[in-house]
Specification:
By secondary structure, the chain is mainly alpha-helical. Helix content is about 70%, strand content about 0%. The protein has helices spanning about 1-70, 85, 105-115. InterPro entries: SNAPC5. One of its GO terms (biological process) is transcription initiation at RNA polymerase III promoter.
């Protein structure tokens, strides 16, 4: 009989311990979710602070760059003779005939072409 009493006490104790285990697991899961939420909140706050800091830095650097900083002065004069200006001009004459005719004859030939 002592064995059955001890056995029933152990079973009750096991049930109580299982309930406690279940409650502790639930509580642990809630704490994990809360931890993730807090980490997310902290990350969001840090990102907002960093963006505000960057915006402040950009605003101060742009304002000082545009308004306070003098324009750089080059000691070397600007060279306007670049590679394009140094290339020789192409001969636009085709076989020695000039592209632009001069005199009244050129005008007459153009009028004749327009009439036809």
């Amino acid at each position: 009989m002592a064995c059955s009493v001890e056995l029933s006490l152990l079973k009750e104790e096991e049930k109580v311990l299982l309930k406690i285990l279940s409650k502790l697991n639930d509580h642990l899961n809630r704490l994990k979710v809360e931890e993730l939420a807090l980490q997310s909140y902290i990350r969001k706050q840090k990102n907002e602070q960093q963006t505000q800091l960057l915006q402040q830095q950009l605003s101060t650097t742009t304002s000082t760059t545009f308004f306070a900083a003098p324009l750089p002065v080059s000691e070397k004069p600007v060279d306007f003779t670049n590679a394009v200006n140094q290339e020789p001009l192409m001969d636009l004459n085709a076989n020695g005939i000039t592209a632009v005719k001069s005199g009244p004859r050129a005008c007459e030939s153009e009028e004749e072409e327009d009439d036809s």
